[in-house]
Amino acid sequence: MSLTNQIITTVIAVILGLAVSTLYILSDSSRNTLVTQLESHAEDGATHLGLYLAPYMQKGDVATVETAVNAIFDSGFYQRIDVLDRAGEALYSKQFDSSANIDAPEWFIQLIPITPPTKTRDIAYNWQQVGSIHIRSRAGYAYEQLWLGVRNALLLSAVLSLLAALVLSGLLRILLSPLRGVEHQAMALARREYIEQPNLPKTRELRRVVTAMNLMVRQVENMFNEQNRNIEALRTAAYRDTLTGLNNRKAALTQLNEHLEYRQDFGPASLICLRLNNLQQLNKELGEDNTNHLIQTSARLLDELAKQLGFNVTGRMGGAELVLLARRRNRDLWQQKLEPLANQINTLHAQLNNTEGKPNIVSIGISSCEGHDKTETLLSQARFAADQAEENNEAIAFYSQHQAQRGWSEQWQEHVANVIGNGQIFLQQQTLVGTENQPVHAEVFARILNQENEPCSAGEFLGVARDLDLLPVIDRLVIERALSYLLTHEAPSRLAVNLANQTLSQPEFVDWLLQKLEQSPASARLSIEVNETAILTRLDAIQSLRNSLQGLGVEFGVDNFGTHPNGFSYLYALRPDYLKIDGSLVRHLSHSEEDRFFVSSLISVAHSLEIQAHAEHVENETQRSTLQGMKIDGTQGYLHGQPSALGSVSEV
């Protein structure tokens, strides 16, 4: 019960106690008054009746005595009247019918006992004793009159108490409303929501409480914000290049390895190495500040190009060397994209150097792969091509003149489109394991067969599907088959499906998804995951989707968490059920103190918001034990087995 209700209940109880006590006192006083009144009536009745009946009693006129007694008895004040002659023999007696009900509750009669008074009067006539009259008052009359008064008083007290309770309740709720605000603040603070009460109450004690709570909210907010700033500063120091804002060398190599060697999700890819020639000479000609400005501009232009190209990795490898990994394009398209970029850099150099000509100071090397080459190999090839461009005084050079610099083949695009259009996909799963080695869920992946009827990796067909705008079709198939599987299998207990950014950009898909989940009895055993980049691209839409999923009892998770440069402040508004820390942050935990501290901070932030924290791409026990020391909630990766066909092996 709330404090307000407790106070109201207590006050009402006190009011009722006072009312009952007052009624008891009043009833006791009324009882005494009624008894006195009955005594007076009995005495007056005996006197008047004696004066009237004296001559008739002397004569023994019983008929007249009877008539007079009946007349006075009808007043209802008397229980019994006895008229006796001088010998003590009854001339006439009249008694109230004992079977007649008293118009008052039995409990009331038992609660307030009344002893009816009896009066006797000796009767004389002509100086002779002619007899006596005995009158006993009726208690029922007293009870009826007393009950009538008490009942009316009870009704009035009840009405007044109810009105007092309503008025008191309203006043107390108004006076104590700041306490409800304090309660709301405390609950919000537990969710890392910082709410202050702008209106301070006039009551001194409540004003102090609200002021203290507002102060605590500000202090806790500052503390959490400082924690987040420290984590962001660590991220910047450990993974971001301070000059350009791109990934530094360590982060760039880590993400290149993650996409090219582990996930293999790029498919055919091109690595661009952009270099400003003769950095030392540039420093002499332009000065350090202007040279840094030239590098910053080059990084900005390369980053803008990367955003146009879609899925990418950018970074500064050191000095004036920048890299960009993107899906493979043909030679003409790269020329078309990169030549204007090189011209802008050369123009800026000429402006900074105050020269009329535009000497070429940019060397761009491009190497390509099928999406599963070694990072070191691809980077060495791109650098070799950049060296060739510098040697030939050209802006752009490709690693191999005979290498095919084109994207997907028409035959492969047609094959992927036909397979997806016919719904010929199959699902694989990989188990997420909790701290007690218990399965948490199985993440499912879509796969297809290549032209040789062999399973192909995600990178070999998802890029084509993305270019052909077929990712929404794949996600629909995955959702339908995952729900169908859950309906017919007790295990796994839960499946997780990762939705593509391209899919989430279609409102009709979101409507279809929510309708499908609402209609399926198995929806509560499904988890929906969204990539962190997709969340930051359309946060409002994802927030709406998360709220709808929560209403349907469907879990929501953030995939590839912790690598986006915009940070993780969105967690406070989104409040997912769990997040999966990106595998690139987990890969070097055993020998990178910076990675350990950063991952530990991410876990702490998640737990402070009551969000489960899992780790992806865990490959050995050393990584797992390190993560368990950081209080990780679950791990997923090759340590627990490679992806397998859904329902065949290693079911959850």
Automatic annotation (TrEMBL):
Lineage top rank: taxon: Bacteria
Q: Which InterPro entries match?
A: Cyclic-di-GMP_PDE-like (IPR050706), EAL_dom (IPR001633), EAL_sf (IPR035919), GGDEF_dom (IPR000160), HAMP_dom (IPR003660), LapD_MoxY_N (IPR032244), LapD_MoxY_peri_C (IPR042461), Nucleotide_cyclase (IPR029787)
Task: Tell me the ranges covered by the GGDEF domain, including all copies.
Answer: 267-401
Q: Which residues form the signal peptide?
A: none
Per UniProt, residues of the HAMP domain are 173-225
GO terms under cellular component: membrane
- Cite a single GO BP annotation: signal transduction
Q: Which residues cross the membrane?
A: 6-26, 153-176
Q: What residues does the EAL domain cover?
A: 409-652
Keywords linked to the UniProt accession:
Membrane, Transmembrane, Transmembrane helix
Q: Which GO terms describe its molecular function?
A: cyclic-guanylate-specific phosphodiesterase activity
The name this protein goes by in its record: Diguanylate cyclase/phosphodiesterase
**Species this protein is from:** Marinobacterium stanieri
